[in-house]
Amino acid sequence: MRFIASIPKVVVxxxxxxxxxxxxxxxxxxxxxxxxxDYMDWDPVRxxxxxxxxxxxxxxxxxxxxAIGLRERTHFTLHVLKLGAAGQHFVDRIHYVLIGILGAIxxxxxxxxxxxxxxxxxxxxxINLAVLYASVVAGGGLxxxxxxxxxxxPPPPAEPILPE
Length: 164
Hints:
With 164 residues, this protein is mainly α. The chain has helices at 2-40, 49-72, 85-116, 129-152.
């Protein structure tokens, strides 16, 4: 079960590494290869694909990472009201219900976008646009799953970080 639970974290880690490599390749091609090909009077190196790959990686990284942040309780929180344990418990449940609803809506419309755009491709690499919009389905679905898990079996409360 732990292996299944760690899959989104592994995916986000791989996406982050791929995004960094993609960015480095883009910088190298733009600032090293373009002047070299200009100086040598060679055909220019095409690197428009770097933007497409970066967009795809960023979408997947953001949407899957948001769900992980929900489960790990690493999102920003603002504590305005001083509530008792029961009141805080109630507010937390409502909070996760609303997040689950938002995730379900995102996943639903992500499916509709995948179906609507499954025949379209990106201009450079001709990747099916459904791959891009599937990130909304995956992120929304994970938000629903993690929101339900936070309602049913929340992790112990994190210790607040107090300024010194």
